[in-house]
Specification:
This is ATP synthase protein I. The protein is an all-alpha fold. Helix content is 75%, strand content 0%.
Amino acid sequence: MTNTDLAPPPADPRWRVAHLPFLTAVSMALVLCAASVGYFTGGSGAALGAALGVLIVTLSYTMSTLVIAWADTVRPALLMPLALLTYVVKYSLLGVVLSYGVSTNWSGKSALGWGIVAGVVVWTGVQAWWFTAIRRPK
């Protein structure tokens, strides 16, 4: 297979990751909110758990975005295998973290779960809003 057989790269591939700075800022604000709510409802353990939950989602979604954007710019045929591999790795690590967390007596484990839920809902909502209202790829 020669280079001429490959699809040409997009004119400006940066749109694939243009949302990351904004979503990271929103996520950091959510970390502070989650930690505050956790602290006022369950103390320092809950504050740490809630903040960690949001951070786990932020790192997970950022990793997926970067891997998918890279694969799409380098070779679109790699997109599906690398995306699936990324999801397998992410959910395996999340499963290990959550199974360890459930088996402990740590006071922040419930807040960790709520932080993960909040992170998923906020990240997904803001990303959907970004792509529909703010930045439409051409």
